């Protein structure tokens, strides 16, 4: 892969001439802006950037970003993106999916793109509902969600996107929410990660599932319920008055009070983005008794799929000549001598 | 097939026009290797030939059982050979199970060569024989040559210090030696092959050569007594040049590589294991030096989606499967049609519906190929008629995909994929290249004369431009939602959808397809037998035989299923009758009727087995027997035809169906 050339752009350069058709007030607008704000900071080249999506509200995203874009079919975006990346590993690919697209119809592909570790940024907009099809319960809907398809309330246990990603072998798991000012930082960290970087973005569906994340993602007043993780920093929240500790008897995380800023005395642990065991605990940490873990939960790169494919191809081709005539003439061959027989 | 000149009860004449030999044994007896080497010697002798391997669906079938029988059939002759033969003249049975499974197909008066050493009590039981058929007189209507091949092999290889178990592994070479003698073939090429195959184990090579020579010597000494006699088959005059054997799976793979080279594109192949299509993935996985990337996806859907993603990024995307997998790919193929990206989809058809008969052949995915998508989603469909034809058809599929920016379906089937035939190795330079062109600059101007890019502006062929992501200044968005006919922006308006539907239809219908030729016979007359795909061989021979009897019948074989050749309707209408033999319930017949309003009459067979020549000759004869109303219909199931369906426990297991040739080729 060639080293990417940094290009100077502004937010405006990443806007298309297409009218954005999400509902007024939809969280998708904020995410779009966060992405368009982040791309110039990355020095990204619009000509080399590709947004690939599946189907759903979130998957309209590519139409609104002035780069290359492919709006594919329901759930399959990871497979298209894998093919595109293998065909041209230099492309900078952003995948846009949602809770229904990525975890229901496309759960299989999401799992495989993560475990293969194809280098791309995967943004899963989680609004816990099917928006585009008018409000049915989704695989991340909480138990008891009343919707047109679950009038009495849903009864299936919700999937947890970050836990799914980590379980599938993701080497980068980040979290943010639509209106958060920290979202660009998470996106930047994901982009810096070589490999499949999974970002769960809580997104407010103001029509079908309004404000379900308000307890931690309200524009104002929910800050104390946010645990913003930073590598090498103690896991503190609620204005550093509380922290996350590891109970060494039960081997569970627990919330502890921090007195006079002495987090060490309180047993608060320091975030290590490469600690996979703690990452598993963080993605499983139930909101309510615990704050919502946000930021970069896990980041420990390993070689990418496309690098392995390229290396294998190079090794298998080394010293071999791509001679088609020779290839065709392999196998069980014989020669008919024109002098001995009458040509037909 | 045996010829009319062969009086069945008299066994083989000394110089028959053609002979069918079937080598049958346990899966562990090396019958595929024996058949492969016999094929090579047949080719070297200048005979025309066709072969078909018939091996168990089981991955490791229990030894000696009926469903563990592996067979290799070869038809060779001094006349053009079109099929692996209706029924064997010679059956080599290496154990009781092999005899039992294959006996019914043997011609009356045919020769059985059996290894008595393997007809033990235990093996007879496993083959469900109450008595030893070699001894109870039940084989009276055949010529029987039974002797202890096992013992003779052990004797022959004794000097090489092998244990009995290892020695018995050379049984197949002993048998091959006998067959070489029987058909007057030199041993040198097989000696050379053994030496090269066992280069690192010279003692094994020597033992096998000794076994081969002993089998050959046995033929010479046994000639004076008994039914064994030497048979000579004259060579078929063929064009000078380099020849090889090729299976359909190999030819498709090579054709795809050639097609990508002619298009000057890297190839991306997305596949998922499925019988009988996996062989293509396996072949291509070993051809990386030709800028081929193979990707074994998590499922059929991901395989086609990745191929489309690769086409989007500037490679030639290819995917391959069989009916059930094609069904899964259907939605993505629709996206390929909608976004107008090149894609080649190979369908190696098998018996259906659902899992159906994974290891047996059928042509029942024609409707699926032509019609089987949501929306008005036209797509070119072309069909290979034989293993070697698959090479040209694969190139043609690549050409259409690239020149018309469209997915193309290439139909083969289980028979073509596995069957082998001689192929005059083509010169790649004799094919006209069709280099893909990528748009790198704006392709239109606005009212002020400013350059603009219109992603759906079409060329003379109706194709939109291909733009690789990474191209500066041409950023755009594509997708499955209806797009404006020029800008490619989302456009739901009624007139736009009407125009885009028309544009997609016109593009496909406008594909340049060569005029249909008559491959045998006149261009008008009483009867046209119209086929497509792997029925080519039996139809061709049956029509040839009928014409030799003076019947007014022609053979038309259609490669371009969609769109069809422009002259096909007129051609069909110039015949009084049109008979369409198909290994389905009459799908192509329906398409022909629909397109041309001709009275195409179906002749159908859905037993999972190819048509036999005799069945087609009989069907042709019904147009000349003076009886009305008995034409066409369904071919009655012939319980004796091979391959048998009952012998395998087909459970859809994903077995590599690669032929021994291909295994050798790839090793």
Automatic annotation (TrEMBL), chain A:
Thiamine pyrophosphate enzyme TPP-binding domain mapped to chain residues: 55-201
Composition bias, Polar residues: 135-152
Highest taxon, organism lineage: Bacteria
GO BP: any one term: cellular respiration
Cross-referenced SUPFAM superfamilies: Thiamin diphosphate-binding fold (THDP-binding)
Pfam family, one: TPP_enzyme_C
Keyword Amino-acid biosynthesis set for record: no
An MF annotation (GO) of this entry: thiamine pyrophosphate binding
Keywords for this protein: Oxidoreductase
InterPro entries to which the protein is assigned, alphabetical: 2-oxoacid:Fd_oxidoreductase (IPR051457), THDP-binding (IPR029061), TPP_enzyme_TPP-bd (IPR011766)
Sequence segments annotated as region (Disordered): 135-154
Record PANTHER family: 2-OXOGLUTARATE OXIDOREDUCTASE SUBUNIT KORB, 2-OXOGLUTARATE OXIDOREDUCTASE SUBUNIT KORB-RELATED
Listed name of the protein: 2-oxoacid:ferredoxin oxidoreductase subunit beta
Biological source species: Qipengyuania citrea
Lineage: Bacteria, Pseudomonadati, Pseudomonadota, Alphaproteobacteria, Sphingomonadales
Automatic annotation (TrEMBL), chain B:
GO MF annotation list: 2-oxoglutarate synthase activity
EC number: 1.2.7.11, 1.2.7.3
Keyword match Oxidoreductase: yes
Pyruvate:ferredoxin oxidoreductase core domain span: 527-586
Residue ranges annotated for the Pyruvate/ketoisovalerate oxidoreductase catalytic domain, each copy included: 28-216
Region Disordered, annotated ranges: 631-667
Keyword field: Oxidoreductase
UniProt-recorded name of the protein: 2-oxoacid:acceptor oxidoreductase subunit alpha
Lineage of source species: Bacteria, Pseudomonadati, Pseudomonadota, Alphaproteobacteria, Sphingomonadales
């Amino acid at each position: 892969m060639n080293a990417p050339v940094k290009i100077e752009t502004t937010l405006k350069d990443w806007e298309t001439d297409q009218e954005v058709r999400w509902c007024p007030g939809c969280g998708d607008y904020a995410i779009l802006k966060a992405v368009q704000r982040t791309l110039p900071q990355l020095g990204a080249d619009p000509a080399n950037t590709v947004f690939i999506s599946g189907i759903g509200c979130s998957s309209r995203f590519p139409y609104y970003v002035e780069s290359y874009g492919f709006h594919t079919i329901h759930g399959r975006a990871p497979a298209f993106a894998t093919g595109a990346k293998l065909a041209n590993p230099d492309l900078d690919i952003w995948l846009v999916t949602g809770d229904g697209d990525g975890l229901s119809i496309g759960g299989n592909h999401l799992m495989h793109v993560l475990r293969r570790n194809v280098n791309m940024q995967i943004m899963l907009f989680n609004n816990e509902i099917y928006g585009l099809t008018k409000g049915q319960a989704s695989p991340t809907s909480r138990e008891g969600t009343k919707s047109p398809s679950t009038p009495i309330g849903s009864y299936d246990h919700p999937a947890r996107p970050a836990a799914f990603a980590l379980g599938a072998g993701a080497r980068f798991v980040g979290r943010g929410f639509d209106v958060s000012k920290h979202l660009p930082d998470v996106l930047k960290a994901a982009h810096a990660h070589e490999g499949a970087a999974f970002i769960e973005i809580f997104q407010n569906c103001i029509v079908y599932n309004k404000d379900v994340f308000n307890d931690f993602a309200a524009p104002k007043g929910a800050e104390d319920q946010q645990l913003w993780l930073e590598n090498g920093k103690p896991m503190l929240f609620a204005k550093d008055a509380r922290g996350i500790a590891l109970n060494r008897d039960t081997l569970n995380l627990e919330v502890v009070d921090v007195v006079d800023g002495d987090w060490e005395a309180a047993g608060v642990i320091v975030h290590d983005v490469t600690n996979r065991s703690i990452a598993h605990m963080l993605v499983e940490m139930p909101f309510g008794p615990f704050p919502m873990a946000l930021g970069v939960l896990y980041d420990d790169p390993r070689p990418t799929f496309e690098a392995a494919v390229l290396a294998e191809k190079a090794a298998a081709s080394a010293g071999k000549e791509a001679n088609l005539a020779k290839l065709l003439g392999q196998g069980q061959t014989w020669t008919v001598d024109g002098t001995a027989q009458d040509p037909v | 097939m045996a010829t009319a000149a062969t009086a069945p009860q008299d066994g083989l004449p000394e110089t028959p026009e053609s002979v069918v030999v079937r080598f049958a044994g346990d899966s562990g007896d090396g019958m595929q290797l024996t058949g492969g080497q016999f094929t090579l010697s047949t080719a070297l002798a200048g005979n025309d030939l066709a072969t078909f391997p018939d091996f168990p669906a089981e991955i490791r079938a229990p030894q000696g059982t009926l469903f563990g029988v592996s067979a290799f059939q070869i038809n060779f002759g001094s006349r053009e050979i079109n099929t692996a033969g209706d029924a064997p003249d010679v059956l080599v049975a290496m154990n009781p199970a092999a005899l039992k499974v294959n006996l019914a197909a043997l011609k009356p008066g045919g020769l059985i060569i059996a290894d008595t050493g393997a007809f033990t009590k235990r093996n007879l039981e496993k083959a469900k024989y109450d008595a030893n058929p070699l001894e109870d007189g039940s084989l009276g209507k055949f010529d029987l040559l039974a002797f202890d091949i096992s013992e003779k092999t052990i004797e022959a290889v004794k000097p090489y210090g092998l244990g009995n178990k290892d020695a018995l592994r050379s049984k197949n070479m002993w048998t091959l030696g006998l067959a070489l003698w029987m058909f007057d073939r030199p041993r040198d090429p097989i000696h050379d092959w053994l030496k090269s195959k066992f280069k690192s184990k010279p003692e094994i090579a020597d033992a096998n050569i000794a076994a081969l020579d002993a089998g050959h010597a046995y033929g010479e000494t046994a000639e004076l007594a008994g039914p064994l006699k030497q048979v000579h088959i004259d060579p078929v005059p063929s064009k000078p040049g380099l020849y090889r054997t090729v299976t359909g799976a190999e030819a498709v793979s090579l054709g795809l590589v050639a097609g990508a080279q002619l298009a000057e594109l890297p190839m991306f192949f997305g596949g998922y294991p499925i019988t009988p299509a996996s062989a293509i993935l396996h072949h291509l996985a070993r051809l990386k030096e030709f800028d081929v990337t193979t990707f074994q996806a998590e499922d059929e859907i991901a395989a086609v989606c990745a191929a489309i993603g690769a086409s989007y990024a500037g490679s030639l995307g290819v995917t391959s499967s069989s009916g059930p997998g094609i069904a899964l790919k259907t939605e993505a193929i629709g996206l390929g049609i909608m976004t107008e990206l090149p894609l080649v989809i190979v369908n190696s058809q098998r018996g259906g519906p659902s899992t159906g008969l994974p290891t047996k052949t059928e042509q029942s995915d024609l409707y699926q190929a032509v019609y089987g998508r949501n929306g008005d989603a036209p797509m070119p469909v072309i069909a290979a008629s034989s293993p070697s034809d698959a090479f040209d058809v694969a190139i043609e599929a690549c050409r259409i995909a690239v020149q018309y920016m469209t997915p193309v379906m290439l139909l083969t089937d289980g028979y073509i994929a596995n069957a082998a035939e001689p192929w005059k190795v083509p010169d790649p330079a004799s094919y006209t290249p069709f280099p893909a062109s990528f748009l790198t600059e704006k392709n239109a101007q606005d009212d002020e004369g400013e350059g603009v890019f219109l992603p759906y502006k079409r060329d003379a062929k109706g194709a939109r431009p291909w733009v690789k992501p990474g191209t500066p200044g041409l950023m755009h968005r594509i997708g499955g939602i209806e797009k404006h006919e020029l800008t490619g922006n989302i456009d739901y308006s009624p007139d736009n959808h009407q125009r885009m539907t028309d544009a997609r239809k016109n593009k496909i219908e406008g594909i340049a397809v060569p005029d249909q030729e008559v491959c045998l016979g006149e261009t008008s007359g009483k009867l046209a037998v119209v086929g497509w795909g792997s029925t080519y061989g039996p139809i061709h021979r049956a029509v040839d035989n009928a014409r030799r009897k003076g019947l007014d019948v022609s053979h038309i074989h259609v490669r371009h299923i969609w769109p069809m050749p422009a002259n096909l309707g007129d051609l069909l209408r110039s015949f009084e009758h049109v008979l369409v033999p198909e290994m389905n319930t009459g799908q192509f017949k329906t398409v022909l009727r629909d397109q041309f309003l001709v009275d195409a009459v179906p002749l159908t067979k859905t037993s999972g087995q190819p048509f036999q020549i005799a069945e087609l000759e009989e069907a042709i004869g019904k147009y000349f027997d003076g009886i009305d109303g008995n034409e066409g219909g369904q071919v009655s199931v012939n319980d004796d035809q091979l391959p048998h369906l009952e012998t395998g426990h087909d459970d859809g297991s994903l077995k590599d169906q690669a032929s021994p040739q291909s295994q050798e080729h790839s090793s």
